[in-house]
Design goal:
Elements lengths: L3 E11 L4 E5 L5 H5 L3 E6 L2 E13 L2 E6 L5 H5 L5 E5 H6 L8 H4 L3 E4 L4 E10 L4 E7 L4 E5 L5 E5 L4 E4 L8
Parallel strand pairs: 7-12
Antiparallel strand pairs: 1-2, 1-6, 2-5, 3-4, 3-6, 4-5, 7-8, 8-9, 9-10, 11-12
């Protein structure tokens, strides 16, 4: 079974010719502009759509899908999430980029191989991604996902090595 990853949400329509106003994560503009097909989930079904055109407008993307030519045809999809296949995302990851579901659950160690906890989530503060790490003392601490703190990510062994400077993790 194919696995899909959400890349945006249809927030509203734009104009009268069926263009969709789509919200997406900041920093993903080039990825969004490169999409030529997507899936829209409706009633727990993934419906494929060809992207006729996509352009940026302020902090949103405006999608025109083949076969949707009016507001009425688009209204059924308002509020729906837009997905792409996981394989497509993996092909387009750059070096040192990871999927969130790969990072969640990974064990976190310091540079001396002492286990500090595990990743329970990933968020973004506008400047960079943050790992939410549940420590051995059951506290949740945020670790910036930047080179100064993240020394190694090993997907196969499900481990992350961090530079645990004083005060970073309790």
């Amino acid at each position: 079974m194919d696995k899909y990853i959400s890349v945006g949400k249809i927030l509203n329509f734009h104009g009268i010719k069926g263009e969709a106003k789509v919200g997406f994560s900041k920093g993903q503009e080039d990825f969004i502009l490169g999409l030529d097909s997507v899936y829209i989930r409706k009633d727990n079904q993934y419906i494929p759509f060809k992207v006729q055109s996509v352009r940026l407008n302020k902090n949103f993307a405006l999608f025109k899908f083949e076969g949707i030519d009016s507001i009425n045809e688009l209204m059924d999809y308002k509020g729906s999430l837009i997905f792409v296949e996981e394989g497509y995302i993996r092909e387009n990851l750059e070096e040192n980029e990871f999927l969130i579901d790969e990072l969640v659950g990974m064990s976190v160690y310091d540079t001396e191989s002492k286990k500090l906890g595990f990743v329970v989530g990933v968020s973004n503060n506008g400047a960079n991604d943050l790992l939410s790490v549940k420590t051995n003392s059951k506290h949740i601490c945020l670790v910036p996902f930047i080179e100064a703190f993240i020394k190694n990510v090993d997907i196969e062994s499900k481990t992350i090595v961090i530079n645990n400077i004083e005060g970073l993790l309790e």
